[in-house]
Amino acid sequence: MAIRVDSERCVHFHELLYRVMRRLYGNHELLNKAFDMQVFEMITQNRVLKLTEKTQKELQKYKEVKISEYSGIANPMMSQFQTKQALKAWVRFARGHNN
User: What angle (nearest 5°) sits at the alpha carbon of residue 71, between those of residues 67 and 76?
Assistant: First the structure.
Protein backbone atom coordinates (compact mmCIF):
# COMPACT_ATOMS: atom_id res chain seq x y z
CA MET A 1 0.00 0.00 0.00
CA ALA A 2 3.04 2.30 0.23
CA ILE A 3 2.20 3.73 3.63
CA ARG A 4 4.71 6.35 4.71
CA VAL A 5 6.32 6.22 8.13
CA ASP A 6 7.97 9.17 9.90
CA SER A 7 11.41 9.15 11.54
CA GLU A 8 10.02 7.61 14.75
CA ARG A 9 8.36 4.79 12.79
CA CYS A 10 4.87 6.11 13.48
CA VAL A 11 2.09 5.96 10.91
CA HIS A 12 -0.10 9.04 10.75
CA PHE A 13 -3.84 8.35 10.89
CA HIS A 14 -4.69 10.48 7.86
CA GLU A 15 -2.07 8.73 5.76
CA LEU A 16 -3.39 5.30 6.73
CA LEU A 17 -7.03 6.34 6.19
CA TYR A 18 -6.21 7.79 2.78
CA ARG A 19 -4.41 4.65 1.63
CA VAL A 20 -7.15 2.29 2.86
CA MET A 21 -9.96 4.34 1.32
CA ARG A 22 -8.05 4.70 -1.91
CA ARG A 23 -7.57 0.96 -2.11
CA LEU A 24 -11.26 0.28 -1.43
CA TYR A 25 -12.89 3.04 -3.47
CA GLY A 26 -10.15 4.33 -5.76
CA ASN A 27 -10.69 4.33 -9.49
CA HIS A 28 -7.99 2.15 -11.03
CA GLU A 29 -8.44 3.76 -14.45
CA LEU A 30 -6.84 6.91 -13.09
CA LEU A 31 -3.49 5.23 -12.45
CA ASN A 32 -2.06 6.24 -15.83
CA LYS A 33 -3.30 9.80 -15.41
CA ALA A 34 -1.91 9.89 -11.90
CA PHE A 35 1.45 8.74 -13.20
CA ASP A 36 1.39 11.47 -15.85
CA MET A 37 0.57 14.01 -13.16
CA GLN A 38 3.45 12.73 -11.03
CA VAL A 39 5.85 13.08 -13.94
CA PHE A 40 4.58 16.60 -14.63
CA GLU A 41 4.96 17.46 -10.94
CA MET A 42 8.54 16.17 -10.90
CA ILE A 43 9.39 18.22 -13.99
CA THR A 44 7.87 21.31 -12.39
CA GLN A 45 9.77 20.74 -9.14
CA ASN A 46 12.98 20.34 -11.12
CA ARG A 47 12.36 23.67 -12.89
CA VAL A 48 11.66 25.39 -9.58
CA LEU A 49 14.84 23.90 -8.11
CA LYS A 50 16.91 25.16 -11.05
CA LEU A 51 15.41 28.65 -10.76
CA THR A 52 16.08 28.69 -7.03
CA GLU A 53 19.69 27.64 -7.52
CA LYS A 54 20.14 30.29 -10.21
CA THR A 55 18.73 32.97 -7.95
CA GLN A 56 20.92 31.87 -5.04
CA LYS A 57 24.03 32.01 -7.26
CA GLU A 58 23.12 35.53 -8.41
CA LEU A 59 22.56 36.64 -4.82
CA GLN A 60 25.88 35.13 -3.76
CA LYS A 61 27.68 37.04 -6.53
CA TYR A 62 25.88 40.24 -5.45
CA LYS A 63 26.92 39.69 -1.83
CA GLU A 64 30.53 39.08 -2.86
CA VAL A 65 30.55 42.31 -4.88
CA LYS A 66 29.06 44.29 -1.99
CA ILE A 67 31.62 42.91 0.47
CA SER A 68 34.51 43.65 -1.86
CA GLU A 69 33.25 47.22 -2.47
CA TYR A 70 33.22 47.99 1.24
CA SER A 71 36.33 46.11 2.25
CA GLY A 72 38.39 49.36 2.29
CA ILE A 73 36.08 50.97 4.87
CA ALA A 74 36.61 48.19 7.37
CA ASN A 75 39.55 50.07 8.93
CA PRO A 76 38.47 50.62 12.57
CA MET A 77 40.63 53.73 13.01
CA MET A 78 39.05 55.43 10.00
CA SER A 79 35.57 54.40 11.10
CA GLN A 80 36.15 55.89 14.56
CA PHE A 81 37.64 59.08 13.06
CA GLN A 82 34.70 59.53 10.68
CA THR A 83 32.21 58.92 13.50
CA LYS A 84 33.89 61.54 15.71
CA GLN A 85 33.99 64.05 12.88
CA ALA A 86 30.31 63.53 12.12
CA LEU A 87 29.40 63.90 15.81
CA LYS A 88 31.45 67.10 16.16
CA ALA A 89 29.84 68.57 13.04
CA TRP A 90 26.38 67.73 14.35
CA VAL A 91 27.14 69.30 17.77
CA ARG A 92 28.46 72.50 16.11
CA PHE A 93 25.35 72.66 13.93
CA ALA A 94 23.01 72.09 16.91
CA ARG A 95 24.74 74.69 19.11
CA GLY A 96 24.82 77.23 16.30
CA HIS A 97 21.05 77.19 15.97
CA ASN A 98 20.40 77.38 19.72
CA ASN A 99 22.30 80.70 20.20
Answer: 130
pTM: 0.34
pLDDT higher at 95 or 61? 95
Q: Comparing C-alpha atoms, which of 3, 24, 6 is closest to residue 15?
A: 3
Whether the CB-CB separation of 19 and 3 falls below 8 Å is answered with yes
**What's the burial of 88, exposed, middle or buried (CB within 10 Å: 0-12/13-18/19+)?**
exposed
- First-last CA distance in the chain: 86
Cβ 18 vs Cβ 4: under 8 Å: no
Higher pLDDT, 74 or 24: 24
H-helix segments, 1-99: 13-25, 31-69, 76-98
